[in-house]
Backbone:
Protein backbone atom coordinates (compact mmCIF):
# COMPACT_ATOMS: atom_id res chain seq x y z
CA UNK A 1 0.00 0.00 0.00
CA UNK A 2 1.51 3.27 -1.08
CA UNK A 3 1.80 5.95 1.55
CA UNK A 4 1.53 9.54 0.42
CA UNK A 5 4.38 11.65 1.64
CA UNK A 6 3.29 15.11 2.69
CA UNK A 7 5.33 17.97 1.39
CA UNK A 8 7.55 19.81 3.78
CA UNK A 9 5.42 21.94 6.05
CA UNK A 10 5.69 25.61 6.54
CA UNK A 11 7.22 25.03 9.95
CA UNK A 12 10.63 24.45 8.42
CA UNK A 13 10.30 27.20 5.83
CA UNK A 14 12.84 30.00 6.21
CA UNK A 15 10.29 32.37 4.70
CA UNK A 16 7.77 31.59 7.44
CA UNK A 17 10.41 32.08 10.12
CA UNK A 18 11.43 35.34 8.46
CA UNK A 19 7.82 36.57 8.30
CA UNK A 20 7.16 35.69 11.95
CA UNK A 21 10.33 37.46 13.11
CA UNK A 22 9.71 40.60 11.08
CA UNK A 23 6.02 40.87 11.92
CA UNK A 24 6.78 40.24 15.59
CA UNK A 25 9.43 42.95 15.54
CA UNK A 26 6.98 45.28 13.80
CA UNK A 27 4.26 44.59 16.37
CA UNK A 28 6.59 45.23 19.33
CA UNK A 29 7.95 48.41 17.76
CA UNK A 30 4.40 49.60 17.05
CA UNK A 31 3.36 49.00 20.67
CA UNK A 32 6.41 50.91 21.94
CA UNK A 33 5.63 53.77 19.55
CA UNK A 34 1.97 53.95 20.61
CA UNK A 35 2.84 53.83 24.29
CA UNK A 36 5.50 56.52 23.90
CA UNK A 37 3.08 58.74 21.99
CA UNK A 38 0.48 58.28 24.74
CA UNK A 39 2.93 59.11 27.52
CA UNK A 40 4.08 62.22 25.67
CA UNK A 41 1.19 64.29 27.01
CA UNK A 42 1.42 62.74 30.47
CA UNK A 43 5.07 63.72 30.85
CA UNK A 44 4.53 67.36 29.89
CA UNK A 45 4.91 69.48 33.03
CA UNK A 46 1.85 71.43 34.06
CA UNK A 47 -1.62 71.27 32.60
CA UNK A 48 -1.50 70.75 28.80
CA UNK A 49 -5.08 72.01 28.42
CA UNK A 50 -4.28 75.21 30.31
CA UNK A 51 -1.11 75.60 28.23
CA UNK A 52 -3.08 75.21 25.00
CA UNK A 53 -5.99 77.49 25.94
CA UNK A 54 -3.86 80.14 27.62
CA UNK A 55 -3.55 81.47 31.16
CA UNK A 56 -6.57 83.74 30.76
CA UNK A 57 -8.97 80.96 29.72
CA UNK A 58 -11.95 80.54 32.10
CA UNK A 59 -11.71 77.66 34.56
CA UNK A 60 -15.02 76.28 33.30
CA UNK A 61 -13.66 76.06 29.73
CA UNK A 62 -10.47 74.37 30.92
CA UNK A 63 -12.41 71.83 32.98
CA UNK A 64 -14.81 71.14 30.14
CA UNK A 65 -11.98 70.58 27.68
CA UNK A 66 -10.17 68.27 30.15
CA UNK A 67 -13.36 66.25 30.57
CA UNK A 68 -13.89 66.08 26.81
CA UNK A 69 -10.33 64.82 26.33
CA UNK A 70 -10.69 62.28 29.15
CA UNK A 71 -7.77 63.72 31.10
CA UNK A 72 -9.66 63.45 34.39
CA UNK A 73 -9.64 59.64 34.20
CA UNK A 74 -6.93 57.46 35.72
CA UNK A 75 -3.78 56.92 33.67
CA UNK A 76 -4.60 53.28 32.99
CA UNK A 77 -8.14 54.10 31.88
CA UNK A 78 -6.82 56.85 29.60
CA UNK A 79 -4.41 54.34 28.06
CA UNK A 80 -7.17 51.81 27.45
CA UNK A 81 -9.38 54.46 25.85
CA UNK A 82 -6.45 55.64 23.75
CA UNK A 83 -5.78 52.14 22.42
CA UNK A 84 -9.47 51.63 21.74
CA UNK A 85 -9.63 54.90 19.86
CA UNK A 86 -6.66 53.99 17.69
CA UNK A 87 -8.35 50.74 16.67
CA UNK A 88 -11.30 52.76 15.34
CA UNK A 89 -9.12 55.51 13.86
CA UNK A 90 -9.87 58.00 16.66
CA UNK A 91 -6.72 60.00 17.48
CA UNK A 92 -8.51 62.37 19.85
CA UNK A 93 -9.53 66.00 19.51
CA UNK A 94 -7.43 69.05 18.73
CA UNK A 95 -7.16 71.32 21.77
CA UNK A 96 -7.19 74.52 19.74
CA UNK A 97 -9.71 73.86 16.97
CA UNK A 98 -11.83 71.13 18.53
CA UNK A 99 -11.56 69.23 15.24
CA UNK A 100 -10.85 65.48 15.32
CA UNK A 101 -7.12 64.86 14.95
CA UNK A 102 -7.81 62.12 12.40
CA UNK A 103 -9.56 64.66 10.15
CA UNK A 104 -6.64 67.09 10.38
CA UNK A 105 -4.19 64.31 9.52
CA UNK A 106 -6.42 63.08 6.70
CA UNK A 107 -6.50 66.59 5.23
CA UNK A 108 -2.73 67.17 5.47
CA UNK A 109 -1.23 63.72 4.86
CA UNK A 110 -1.83 63.70 1.07
CA UNK A 111 0.19 66.91 0.66
CA UNK A 112 3.12 65.38 2.57
CA UNK A 113 2.98 62.20 0.48
CA UNK A 114 2.82 64.29 -2.70
CA UNK A 115 6.13 65.82 -1.65
CA UNK A 116 7.93 62.86 -0.05
CA UNK A 117 7.19 60.18 -2.66
CA UNK A 118 8.40 62.18 -5.70
CA UNK A 119 11.49 63.21 -3.73
CA UNK A 120 12.30 59.59 -2.95
CA UNK A 121 11.67 58.63 -6.59
CA UNK A 122 14.15 61.32 -7.63
CA UNK A 123 16.70 59.98 -5.14
CA UNK A 124 16.46 56.47 -6.59
CA UNK A 125 16.31 57.62 -10.23
CA UNK A 126 19.40 59.83 -9.85
CA UNK A 127 21.56 58.00 -7.32
CA UNK A 128 21.57 54.48 -8.74
CA UNK A 129 22.47 55.33 -12.37
CA UNK A 130 24.96 58.00 -11.25
CA UNK A 131 26.70 55.71 -8.78
CA UNK A 132 26.82 52.87 -11.30
CA UNK A 133 28.19 55.17 -14.02
CA UNK A 134 31.03 56.53 -11.88
CA UNK A 135 31.85 53.04 -10.63
CA UNK A 136 32.30 51.90 -14.22
CA UNK A 137 34.27 55.00 -15.20
CA UNK A 138 36.62 54.93 -12.21
CA UNK A 139 37.08 51.16 -11.74
CA UNK A 140 40.65 49.96 -11.36
CA UNK A 141 41.94 53.39 -10.39
CA UNK A 142 40.99 55.00 -13.70
CA UNK A 143 40.06 58.66 -14.13
CA UNK A 144 41.31 59.94 -10.79
CA UNK A 145 40.09 63.41 -11.63
CA UNK A 146 36.55 62.18 -12.21
CA UNK A 147 36.61 60.22 -8.96
CA UNK A 148 37.82 63.27 -7.03
CA UNK A 149 35.17 65.51 -8.61
CA UNK A 150 32.39 62.99 -7.90
CA UNK A 151 33.44 62.44 -4.29
CA UNK A 152 33.96 66.12 -3.53
CA UNK A 153 30.65 67.17 -5.08
CA UNK A 154 28.57 64.50 -3.36
CA UNK A 155 30.20 65.17 0.02
CA UNK A 156 29.51 68.89 -0.31
CA UNK A 157 25.88 68.43 -1.35
CA UNK A 158 25.23 65.85 1.36
CA UNK A 159 26.58 68.21 4.03
CA UNK A 160 24.08 70.99 3.26
CA UNK A 161 21.06 70.82 5.62
CA UNK A 162 17.67 70.65 3.90
CA UNK A 163 16.58 73.85 5.63
CA UNK A 164 19.51 75.92 4.34
CA UNK A 165 19.26 74.40 0.88
CA UNK A 166 15.55 75.21 0.74
CA UNK A 167 16.15 78.82 1.79
CA UNK A 168 18.92 79.19 -0.81
CA UNK A 169 16.71 77.75 -3.56
CA UNK A 170 13.87 80.11 -2.68
CA UNK A 171 16.19 83.14 -2.54
CA UNK A 172 17.77 82.43 -5.92
CA UNK A 173 15.16 80.72 -8.10
CA UNK A 174 12.01 82.28 -6.64
CA UNK A 175 13.01 85.73 -5.38
CA UNK A 176 15.87 86.62 -7.74
CA UNK A 177 14.87 84.84 -10.94
CA UNK A 178 11.14 84.41 -10.34
CA UNK A 179 11.11 81.02 -12.04
CA UNK A 180 9.18 79.14 -9.35
CA UNK A 181 6.56 80.02 -6.72
CA UNK A 182 7.85 81.03 -3.32
CA UNK A 183 5.37 78.90 -1.38
CA UNK A 184 2.33 76.66 -1.63
CA UNK A 185 1.43 73.74 -3.89
CA UNK A 186 -0.91 75.38 -6.37
CA UNK A 187 0.57 73.85 -9.54
CA UNK A 188 3.26 71.50 -10.83
CA UNK A 189 5.96 74.18 -10.72
CA UNK A 190 5.45 74.43 -6.95
CA UNK A 191 6.89 70.94 -6.52
CA UNK A 192 10.25 71.57 -8.19
CA UNK A 193 12.13 73.42 -5.44
CA UNK A 194 10.76 71.44 -2.44
CA UNK A 195 11.54 68.13 -4.16
CA UNK A 196 15.08 69.29 -4.99
CA UNK A 197 15.64 70.52 -1.43
CA UNK A 198 14.45 67.21 -0.03
CA UNK A 199 16.16 64.88 -2.51
CA UNK A 200 19.55 66.44 -3.25
CA UNK A 201 21.33 65.44 -0.04
CA UNK A 202 20.05 61.84 0.14
CA UNK A 203 20.72 61.34 -3.58
CA UNK A 204 24.34 62.42 -3.08
CA UNK A 205 24.85 60.00 -0.20
CA UNK A 206 23.16 57.10 -1.98
CA UNK A 207 25.15 57.69 -5.18
CA UNK A 208 28.39 57.31 -3.23
CA UNK A 209 27.14 54.09 -1.65
CA UNK A 210 26.10 52.67 -5.02
CA UNK A 211 29.53 53.48 -6.46
CA UNK A 212 31.42 51.85 -3.59
CA UNK A 213 29.22 48.73 -3.61
CA UNK A 214 29.43 48.42 -7.39
CA UNK A 215 33.23 48.69 -7.31
CA UNK A 216 33.29 45.92 -4.73
CA UNK A 217 31.06 43.70 -6.86
CA UNK A 218 33.09 44.35 -10.03
CA UNK A 219 36.08 42.74 -8.34
CA UNK A 220 34.32 39.41 -7.76
CA UNK A 221 35.04 36.21 -9.63
CA UNK A 222 31.59 35.93 -11.23
CA UNK A 223 32.12 39.31 -12.92
CA UNK A 224 35.44 38.11 -14.33
CA UNK A 225 33.70 34.95 -15.51
CA UNK A 226 31.02 37.01 -17.25
CA UNK A 227 33.69 39.08 -18.95
CA UNK A 228 35.52 35.91 -20.00
CA UNK A 229 32.34 34.74 -21.74
CA UNK A 230 32.50 37.98 -23.74
CA UNK A 231 29.08 39.11 -22.57
CA UNK A 232 28.13 42.64 -23.62
CA UNK A 233 29.18 45.25 -21.08
CA UNK A 234 25.55 46.28 -20.66
CA UNK A 235 24.64 42.78 -19.45
CA UNK A 236 27.67 42.56 -17.18
CA UNK A 237 26.84 45.80 -15.41
CA UNK A 238 23.03 45.68 -15.35
CA UNK A 239 22.34 41.96 -14.97
CA UNK A 240 25.28 40.82 -12.86
CA UNK A 241 26.82 43.79 -11.06
CA UNK A 242 23.86 46.04 -10.23
CA UNK A 243 21.55 43.46 -8.57
CA UNK A 244 24.35 42.38 -6.25
CA UNK A 245 25.16 45.99 -5.38
CA UNK A 246 21.53 46.81 -4.55
CA UNK A 247 21.47 44.92 -1.25
CA UNK A 248 23.42 47.50 0.73
CA UNK A 249 21.89 50.22 -1.44
CA UNK A 250 18.35 49.24 -0.42
CA UNK A 251 19.34 49.14 3.24
CA UNK A 252 20.75 52.64 3.15
CA UNK A 253 17.92 53.82 0.91
CA UNK A 254 15.39 52.73 3.52
CA UNK A 255 17.31 54.47 6.28
CA UNK A 256 17.50 57.66 4.24
CA UNK A 257 13.79 57.52 3.46
CA UNK A 258 13.04 57.44 7.18
CA UNK A 259 15.52 60.30 7.64
CA UNK A 260 13.68 62.28 4.97
CA UNK A 261 10.71 62.40 7.38
CA UNK A 262 12.52 65.03 9.42
CA UNK A 263 13.47 66.76 6.20
CA UNK A 264 9.84 67.13 5.18
CA UNK A 265 9.09 68.97 8.43
CA UNK A 266 11.79 71.57 7.71
CA UNK A 267 11.18 71.86 3.98
CA UNK A 268 7.41 72.18 4.38
CA UNK A 269 7.87 75.08 6.75
CA UNK A 270 10.19 76.91 4.36
CA UNK A 271 7.78 76.55 1.43
CA UNK A 272 4.58 76.89 3.50
CA UNK A 273 3.61 73.46 2.24
CA UNK A 274 0.18 72.42 3.63
CA UNK A 275 1.31 69.04 4.90
CA UNK A 276 1.95 67.31 8.20
CA UNK A 277 5.38 68.93 8.59
CA UNK A 278 4.08 72.47 8.73
CA UNK A 279 1.08 71.33 10.78
CA UNK A 280 3.20 69.74 13.50
CA UNK A 281 5.35 72.88 13.73
CA UNK A 282 2.24 75.03 14.19
CA UNK A 283 0.72 72.64 16.71
CA UNK A 284 3.91 72.67 18.80
CA UNK A 285 3.83 76.45 18.92
CA UNK A 286 0.13 76.37 19.84
CA UNK A 287 0.75 73.61 22.42
CA UNK A 288 -1.87 71.47 20.71
CA UNK A 289 -0.47 68.25 22.15
CA UNK A 290 -3.12 65.76 20.91
CA UNK A 291 -2.44 66.94 17.36
CA UNK A 292 1.32 66.65 17.89
CA UNK A 293 0.75 63.21 19.37
CA UNK A 294 -1.27 62.04 16.37
CA UNK A 295 1.18 63.36 13.78
CA UNK A 296 4.16 61.84 15.60
CA UNK A 297 2.32 58.52 15.64
CA UNK A 298 1.63 58.71 11.89
CA UNK A 299 5.26 59.56 11.14
CA UNK A 300 6.42 56.70 13.37
CA UNK A 301 4.13 54.17 11.70
CA UNK A 302 5.43 55.35 8.34
CA UNK A 303 9.01 54.72 9.45
CA UNK A 304 8.12 51.21 10.67
CA UNK A 305 6.37 50.38 7.40
CA UNK A 306 9.37 51.59 5.40
CA UNK A 307 11.73 49.42 7.45
CA UNK A 308 9.44 46.39 7.02
CA UNK A 309 9.26 46.97 3.26
CA UNK A 310 13.05 47.24 3.01
CA UNK A 311 13.46 43.97 4.94
CA UNK A 312 11.09 42.20 2.53
CA UNK A 313 12.85 43.59 -0.55
CA UNK A 314 16.24 42.54 0.82
CA UNK A 315 14.90 39.04 1.45
CA UNK A 316 13.64 38.84 -2.13
CA UNK A 317 16.99 39.99 -3.53
CA UNK A 318 19.03 37.85 -1.13
CA UNK A 319 17.04 34.84 0.18
CA UNK A 320 19.94 33.96 2.48
CA UNK A 321 18.86 36.85 4.72
CA UNK A 322 15.71 34.92 5.64
CA UNK A 323 17.78 32.39 7.55
CA UNK A 324 18.22 33.28 11.20
CA UNK A 325 21.84 33.77 12.19
CA UNK A 326 23.04 32.08 15.34
Residues:
Amino acid sequence: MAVAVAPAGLRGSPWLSFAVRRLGRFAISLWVLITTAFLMIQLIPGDPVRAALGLTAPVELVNARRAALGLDDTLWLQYVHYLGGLVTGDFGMSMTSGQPVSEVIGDRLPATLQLALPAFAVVIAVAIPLGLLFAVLTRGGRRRGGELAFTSTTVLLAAIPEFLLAVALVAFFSVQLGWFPVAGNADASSFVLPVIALALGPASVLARIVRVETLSVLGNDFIRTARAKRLPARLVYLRHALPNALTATLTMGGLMLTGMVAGTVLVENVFAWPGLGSTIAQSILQKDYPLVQGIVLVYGIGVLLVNLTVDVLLAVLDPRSTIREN
Remarks:
- The CA atoms of residues 148 and 174 lie 32 Å apart.
- Confidence is low (pLDDT under 50) at residues 1-10.
- The domain at 102-322 is CATH 1.10.3720.10 (MetI-like fold).
